[in-house]
Amino acid sequence: VKIPAGVDTGDRIRLAGKGEAGMQGAPPGDLYVQVAVRPHNIFTREGENLHVDAGYHVVGMKAVDAPDISK
Predict the structure, then answer these.
(1) pLDDT of the residue at 58
(2) Measured at the alpha carbon of residue 5, what is the angle toward residues 12 and 9, in degrees to the nearest 5?
(3) Is 0.85 surpassed by the pTM of this model?
(4) Of 65, 5, 3, 62, nearest to 34 (Cα)?
């Protein structure tokens, strides 16, 4: 199942034709997946936005590595 960006706890994802077979040869119904999002130890969520408190203080202009969602 591909989970689209922006889904939140309580959202449902519809998989058309992936449910149980219908009665008397009818086509399969739809399957609904109920989403439950677990808390993350680095990122917090406000609506559709992700936030991270990286604890960096900027002094001058120097590049630093910050956490990103893909790691």
Answers:
(1) 67
(2) 40
(3) no
(4) 3
